[in-house]
Amino acid sequence: MPLDETVAGNDGATHRSDHNALHVRYNASGYRVLLDTVTVSTPQTNADFTSISQAYDDLEVVVLGRGDTAANGADCDMQLGSGSVDTGSNYRSMAVRHGDGTDAFEGQDAAASMQAKTVVAGNNSDALTRGLVTWTIHDYTDTTYQTFVSHVGGALPNSANRYGCFGTGQWSTVTAVDTVRVKCDAGDWDAGTVVKLFGIVH
User: Fold this and answer.
1) In the structure, what pLDDT confidence band is assigned to residue 13 with cuts at 50, 70 and 90?
2) Given this model, what pLDDT does residue 8 score?
3) What torsion do the CA atoms of 169, 171, 172, 175 make, to the nearest 10 degrees?
4) Which residues, at least 6 apart from 5, have a Cβ–Cβ distance to it below 8 Å?
5) Residue 82 predicted with pLDDT over 80
6) CA-to-CA distance for 36 and 178, rounded, in angstroms?
7) What's the total number of domains in the chain?
């Protein structure tokens, strides 16, 4: 696929693939490459990346998003797969969250996804507000250990509500990852949400 070709994905979103993109250097020896972009124009539940190249050390998924849920903020979920998305109860995750003056530790086991808590703006937020979460999928081609994931993010939806979160997750399957899904925990991604997939070389 040529540089910056825009195509309509099976998830209903607009994807821009950058297989020949410039390497963005972040240290003396490593770089990251923008592999694909999902731009949401009408509300949709999932942002999917499939047939992901196995040529990198880690993957990074950056979500600049807004949910259509009637709330100040919304959670962002991640599911992984090999060939297709694993929607079974094969994930565990934990998150440390601060919001509305309250600190909370939240964990889950044998769940259907990994969660980053209250990191995207909800539909009750100021009209032009989005939240940000960055997921890192570590050593995603490994076939010896379960896949480990980390995340950090937050949302500042209005003058009365501020959220921040960091945490980790694990896909309880030993296989290389070539499929990634991010979705709102409740409701859909609203128009204006942008999700980018990067390949990272150390």
Assistant:
1) low
2) 56
3) -140
4) 16, 17
5) yes
6) 13
7) 1
> How are beta strands 161-171 and 14-17 bridged, if at all?
unpaired
Diameter of the chain measured on Cα atoms: 48
Place of tokens 């990994």: 114
Domain range for 114 is 5-201
Q: What is the DSSP letter of 21?
A: P
Write down the residue that tokens 């509500």 correspond to. 161
Q: Output the 3-class SS for 116-160.
A: EEEEEECCCCCCCCCEEEEEEEECCCCCCCCEEEEEEEEEEEECC
Q: What is the pTM of this model?
A: 0.85
Q: How far apart are CA 125 and CA 157, in angstroms?
A: 5
Per-residue exposure over 160-191, b if at least 16 CB sit within 10 Å of its own CB, e if not: ebbbbbbbbbbbeeebebbbbbbbbbebbbbe
pLDDT at 22: 46
